[in-house]
Amino acid sequence: MTEAILTRCGYRCDLCLAYAPNVTNHPSNREKLSDGWYKYYGSRIPPERILCDGCMAGNPQLIDQACPVRPCVIERGLDNCAQCEEYVCDRVTQRLVAYEEVRERVDGPIPEDDYLCFIRPYENERRLEALRAQTGQACTAEEDPKGEVHE
Questions:
Q1: How far is CA 147 from CA 65, 83, 134, in A?
Q2: d(Cα 92, Cα 8) in Å, to the nearest integer?
């Protein structure tokens, strides 16, 4: 099993098709990811621009150059938003992803492969809440929307 690589906002680099090692291993997934991001998030990034070192890397190549979360978390000296006393703030709210919201937005079922490729890596709302619960900062982490364990 691959070790989880968590971003500042709670996304999982290791699961993301744009993460540099994943692109190196499967370069054809760039087109798939470009299409998937457009389908589920309305964001079209040209496949040739899909390559990300992850925001935990020093001086990284990032897809989301305008991310409001990374500089904030770094400035506060935290690993991720779950450790912040201001969680949930406007910055992280702009980047929160929840399966239920994506499903409502597309108004239909999401195939399992699409979930694994385009939603699970970015499904950070539940992930951040679970991290906060581990440290006693959260009320309770929500149950998985599909009744499955994804971490």
A1: 34, 26, 20
A2: 9
In whole angstroms, what is the distance from residue 121 CA to residue 144 CA?
14
What φ, ψ does residue 69 adopt, rounded to 5°?
-80, -50
Residue 105, number of CB atoms within 10 A of its CB: 11
Per-residue pLDDT reduced to its tens digit, 34-50 = 999 999 999 999 999 99
Q: Which two tokens stand for residue 52?
A: 């990300």
Give pLDDT tens digits for 90-143: 999 989 999 999 999 998 899 999 999 999 999 999 999 999 998 776 543 343
Q: CB atoms < 10 A from the CB of 134, how many? A: 11
Instruction: List, in order, residues 6 or more apart from 115 with CB less than 8 Å away.
Output: 99, 146
Residues forming beta bridges with residue 52, ordered by sequence position: 19
Q: Which of 63, 117, 83 is nearest to 8 (CA)?
A: 83
What's the CA gap between 89 and 46, in Å, rounded? Answer: 30
Q: How confident is the model at residue 75 (pLDDT cuts 50, 70, 90)?
A: very high
Q: What tokens appear for 6 in the block?
A: 């968590």
